[in-house]
Write a structure and sequence with these properties.
The complex is a heterodimer of chains A (114) and B (420).
Chain A lengths: L2 H15 L1 H10 L35 H13 L7 H5 L4 H12 L2 H4 L4
Helix pairs in contact in A: 3-5
Chain B lengths: L3 H15 L13 E5 L3 H13 L4 E5 L4 E3 L4 H5 L9 E3 L7 E3 L3 E5 L4 E4 L4 E3 L2 E4 L3 E3 L9 H4 L10 H12 L5 E6 L9 H16 L4 E6 L7 H11 L4 E4 L7 E5 L4 E4 L2 E4 L2 E4 L3 E3 L1 H5 L24 E3 L13 H19 L9 E10 L2 E12 L2 E4 L5 E2 L6 H23 L1
Parallel strand pairs in B: 1-2, 1-9, 2-5, 9-19, 11-12, 11-17, 12-13
Antiparallel strand pairs in B: 3-4, 6-7, 7-8, 10-18, 14-15, 15-16, 20-21, 21-22, 21-23
Helix pairs in contact in B: 2-9, 2-10, 6-7
Classes of the chains: A mainly alpha (114), B alpha/beta (420).
The structure holds flavin-adenine dinucleotide.
Chain lengths: 114, 420
């Protein structure tokens, strides 16, 4: 068994026993996508709820300005990245702002029931 | 004949009755959206639909009790991971009606899906996410019986374990041959990640063995990164034979584990044949696949170009520049759900923007990635210029380690979003 494996199986066991808590956390931060800015819903493929405890930072609880500034730094290469520099360059300043504002909304405000 | 509305209502009610603990269906007028296929695309889409509009009745049709994920299944082959880590049960789908049956036909005109037991269900919009079928008619000698001897392992599960066990049983000094298909196919970097992890296994357990890749192409995804890593980690172990050097396999003989190319015959101790593919069978019978075997779609709504009110997502689509990956399938699913939710309520769909990031492991703790950003252009999903690309060719080991860790965390995050 590799160390990665061990970490993973530990995580899975933890996930099982904590299932109700984790599920609640996932639901609490689960966005609704009705008014999502173009591109915004793809972010959660990697950036999960903070409760998952991933090495990839969670986007929960960040202010829109903070996300915009960071994306700008990724785009310009000012901030080191593995992949976010390559992704950030695919979005204009306006698109980035719209995504950041959507991500920064409290969960209830992201829900838009018709 | 009852009216269509009554039929749809009746269907929503019978769906609710068929599903344990399903919430009460509110009204006869609740629009019913059906999703066929509970993979990365379909399961993501069903969830997104319900989240977007809780007044939609959403039904997910998936015959299997558990999903077996392909990403990281190459690590299972190399003995680095158990198959349990790839297995996700369908038991966290809340108020989505889950039907454990295979869909066998779609009547696009009457908007009805038929299940294997003969049940007939109506929809206002249908999302097809059946993944791929391996073509057992494209490579002479390679049919389902041959796959029991020369596994493809391109759908995770029994095939993965078969190939793993064959590798484990092979004596040191054996020859493993991997045959890679022409484009397009599921997971463009997948065969080369697989070659890398098999090489890792051979190097550590059977160092006198050799791995030959017979390729129907002259170039592949993340090629420079893979080749540089192979030189560094597995010198002399992997031989890549491109199309132009006779790499294309034209026939196989399972009895002797022989792969035939225009340039000669190769005899393997273990043969992994990844055959050509097409959209899952239900796409052909629904009439949404074209002569290529894949499904043309409108890149804004993912609605089929061939049939109205049927949307197609994931590996089954002609995705333009977007590769057939789990990440793409999940991103497309969410964009498609937004379009379907808008169309059902007669609102205009928004222009989507999509992302893909695919990680590959070259060895444990050594990860590389390729990413892209996509948007509709000229009727296809086109890459946004100036963005995306592969990991840098020159990078310290710490970057490769970080990408390997991110790969694992991506898998954990996406599977918890998709399967609960
Ligand atoms: C070795 C390997 C490694 C990979 N690694 C990665 C990776 O690292 N990252 C990445 O992003 N991608 C990876 N992929 C690709 C990824 O697995 C696919 O792109 C992804 O599974 C596509 O999702 P899908 O939902 O379109 O299809 P699938 O995942 O195949 O799901 C289709 C579902 O539909 C169901 N179905 C089919 N027909 C019917 C029917 N008639 N009725 C009802 N249900 C039906 C099936 O049972 C299945 O559950 C890899 C693939 C392979 C083979």
């Amino acid at each position: 068994m590799t160390s990665h494996d061990m970490r993973r199986s530990k995580n899975r066991r933890g996930g099982r026993s904590l299932a109700p808590v984790l599920l609640a956390a996932l639901m609490a931060s689960a966005p609704a996508w009705a008014d999502a800015a173009p591109g915004a819903t793809a972010c959660t493929g990697c950036h999960g709820p903070a409760a998952l405890g991933s090495a990839i930072p969670s986007l929960d609880g960040h202010a829109a300005d903070e996300i915009v500034t960071r994306m700008h730094a990724f785009r310009s290469g000012e901030r080191n990245a593995t992949v976010m520099d390559r992704i950030a360059r695919g979005f204009t300043e306006e698109e980035t702002r719209a995504i950041a504002e959507w991500l920064a909304k409290p969960e209830a405000a992201r829900h838009a029931q018709p | 004949m009852p009216s269509r509305r009554a039929l749809i209502g009746g269907v929503a009610a019978s769906v609710a009755a068929a599903v344990l603990a399903a919430p009460q269906v509110r009204a006869q007028t609740q629009p019913h959206v059906i999703v066929i296929g509970g993979g990365f695309a379909g399961a993501s889409c069903a969830r997104a639909l319900k989240r977007l509009d809780r007044d939609l009745a959403v039904t997910l049709i998936e015959p299997e009790a558990a999903y077996l994920a392909c990403p990281f299944s190459n690590a299972v082959l190399a003995g680095l991971r158990g198959i349990e880590a790839q297995t996700f049960r369908y038991d966290q789908f809340g108020d989505i009606a889950l039907i454990r049956k295979r869909a066998v036909a779609v009547d696009a005109e009457r908007r009805r899906v038929r299940l294997e037991d003969g049940t007939d269900i109506g929809y206002v919009r249908l999302v097809l996410a059946p993944g791929i079928d391996l073509r057992f008619d494209a490579l002479p000698g390679y049919d389902e019986a041959a796959a029991a001897i020369m596994p493809h392992a391109w759908k995770a599960g029994a095939q993965t374990l078969l190939l793993r066990d064959q590798l484990a049983a092979m004596p040191d000094g054996g020859v493993v041959i991997l045959s890679a298909p022409p484009n397009p196919f599921r997971c463009p970097p997948g065969p080369y990640e697989r070659a890398s992890l098999i090489a890792h296994y051979l190097k550590t357990s059977k160092p006198r063995s050799k791995l030959i890749i017979l390729d129907a192409k002259d170039a592949f995804s993340k090629q420079r990164l893979f080749e540089a890593a192979w030189q560094e980690l597995y010198p002399g172990l992997i031989e890549w034979v491109p199309l132009s050097s006779g790499g294309r396999v034209t026939e196989v003989d399972p009895a002797t584990r022989t792969l035939v190319t225009e340039f000669g015959n190769h005899k393997a101790d273990v043969a992994n044949v990844i055959p050509p593919q097409r959209a899952g069978g239900i796409a052909q019978s629904a009439g949404v696949a074209d002569q290529t075997g894949w499904c043309p779609i409108d890149p804004v709504t993912f609605e089929s170009r061939l049939q109205p009110a049927i949307h197609v997502i994931g590996d089954a689509v002609i995705g333009g520049a977007m590769p057939k990956s789990a990440f793409s399938a999940n991103a497309q699913a969410k964009a498609c759900a937004a379009a379907v939710a808008a169309l059902v309520r007669e609102r205009p769909p928004a222009q989507p923007k999509l992302i893909n990031t695919c990680y590959s492991l070259v060895a444990p703790g050594y990860g590389i990635s390729i990413a892209g950003v996509y948007q509709p252009r000229d009727g296809l999903l086109a890459e946004v210029e100036g963005a995306g690309g592969a990991s840098p060719l020159e990078a310290p080991l710490s970057v490769r380690e970080l990408e390997a860790a991110y790969a694992e965390d991506w898998f954990r995050t996406i599977t918890s979003e998709v399967f609960g």
